[in-house]
Design brief:
The chain is of the alpha+beta class. It has helices at 13-30, 34-52, 87-90, 127-138, 145-249, 258-288, 301-312, 337-353, 411-421; strands spanning 6-10, 58-65, 71-78, 100-106, 109-117, 297-300, 321-325, 332-335, 358-367, 370-377, 425-430, 436-443. Helices cover 51% and strands 18% of the residues. The longest helix has 105 residues, at 145-249.
Length: 447
């Protein structure tokens, strides 16, 4: 600690007023604000009153510390020790007026050390500044107890005014809070009513959606039954027409004229196309009705690719188109061999129909835990906005013309449904003039 700014001795009751006044002057000199001056002065006078009650004098020292945190220290000593543990309780309220307070009550007497930090706006406590404060305090003429009482009264009035202002502010804030609460409650009730109304609408909408779902499911089931029944009933007469046409064209039958032979071939071609459409409808109806259950087994892809190569080679009759079924890079996988062959056959047939020149290629590779089959062609291509529409039933790309046979618009939807049954996905990557790539992704070992 540095040399004290001031030392004072308390001998009588009027000295308590004096030390209070000097405490306020010291606090003012080191740069404390008005309320802090009152707090430190009140704390000093209260401790002085308690020490004076012992009947012995008390020494008071004011010390300014200019360390990292500028602080005003007040050290008060009394040679009498009460040593009953009650001093700390008597001064408990005083501790609230200062930042720190240490009470020592032992054999050597009573020592009370209090401190309060100076505000950041206070002047710097240089040695020259401390000497000026000491000179000013030495020249200070203390007032009478009546003067100190008048100052205390003024401080009390100011404190009361401040309390009244705070009370008025608190009342105003309470009124504003109540008004806000009323507004919040009104908004809450309004939102609750709107939410309840919305909930009723949502419930009604869900009920309507459930009803529409039932109607849609019923219509879908009726469509599937209709397709299955009609396809089944049409297959027999169409097959009979094809057989009769073949019988009429047979060499053992009566000879036909050239025109008659041409008309018979037209009838057979139309009946064959109709039979293909009937078969596609029947297969699609089975898939929609959920009647296709995969028969899982370990499939030799080399055998599947060889079968596809042999059965589809007759369709690749144009020398401008190179039809290639590459050797599978994945030898085996677990899937349904019949459904897999049907999917790949549909994709390859579709590619051969719409490819005038270039190539149609089937490859397979392993990607992580999946197996990807890729059918690539150099046909006319499909615009990006129609990539999903081609998987709709009976939809055909506008302007597309099959080079061999006639498309029904059922091959791709049926292929996607079969891929879904096998637990995979079918996607397309295509653009006009750049051909198309259809990718079938299936799990190598379905769970």
């Amino acid at each position: 600690m540095t040399e004290p700014l001031l030392r004072v001795r308390i001998r009588a009751e009027q000295d308590v007023f004096l030390v209070r006044q000097l405490g306020r002057e010291v606090a003012k000199a080191v740069g404390m604000e008005g309320q802090d001056q009152t707090r430190i002065a009140t704390a000093i006078s209260e401790v002085g009153r308690v020490m004076l009650a012992t009947g012995r004098d008390a020494d008071v020292a004011f010390i300014a510390s200019a360390n990292q945190i500028p602080t005003l220290w007040v050290e008060m000593k009394n040679p009498v020790s009460r040593d009953d543990g009650r001093l700390g309780l008597d001064l408990a309220q005083v501790g609230r007026l200062v930042d720190t307070m240490e009470v020592g009550d032992g054999i050597t007497g009573t020592v009370v050390r209090m401190s309060r930090r100076l505000p950041t706006s206070a002047p710097q406590l240089t040695p020259e500044r401390m000497n000026q404060i000491r000179d000013g305090l030495a020249a200070h003429v203390p007032g009478t107890p009546l003067d100190e009482l008048a100052v205390q009264n003024q401080q009390l009035i100011a404190a009361l005014d401040e309390v009244r202002a705070q009370r008025d502010d608190l009342a105003r804030l309470n009124a504003e809070l109540q008004e806000t609460n009323r507004g919040v409650m009104a908004l809450y009730h309004q939102l609750s009513d709107e939410l309840e109304e919305t909930n009723r609408g949502v419930v009604a909408l869900y009920a309507e959606l459930d009803e529409k779902s039932v109607q849609l499911r019923t219509a879908s089931e009726a469509k599937s039954r209709f397709l299955a029944n009609v396809s089944h009933e049409l297959r027999a007469p169409v097959t009979a027409i094809i057989g009769l046409g073949r019988l009429l064209s047979d060499e053992s039958s009566d000879p036909l004229s050239a025109e008659q032979s041409r008309q018979i071939e037209l009838i057979r071609g139309s009946a064959t196309t109709l039979l293909s459409l009937v078969n596609d409808l029947l297969d699609l109806a089975k898939a929609e009705a959920g009647r296709i259950e995969p028969a899982w087994s370990e499939v030799d892809l080399k055998a599947v690719f060889g079968q596809l190569r042999g059965t589809l080679r007759p369709l690749a009759t144009r020398p401008e188109v190179a039809f290639t079924v590459e050797e599978p890079a994945v030898p085996r996988m677990v899937t349904d061999e019949v459904l897999l062959a049907q999917v790949l056959r549909n994709l390859l047939t579709n590619a051969l129909k719409f490819t005038a020149e270039g190539h149609v290629t089937l490859t397979v590779r392993e990607v992580g835990s999946d197996v990807e089959f890729t059918v690539t062609d150099t046909g006319t291509g499909i615009p990006a906005e129609l990539h999903e529409r081609i998987f709709e039933e009976f939809y055909q790309v506008p302007g597309s013309q099959a080079l061999s046979g006639k498309g029904t618009g059922l091959g791709l939807p049926y292929a996607r449904r079969l891929v879904g049954i096998l637990g995979g996905a079918l996607r397309v990557d295509s653009s006009p003039g750049a051909g198309s790539t259809f990718t079938v992704s299936l799990p190598a070992r379905p769970s």
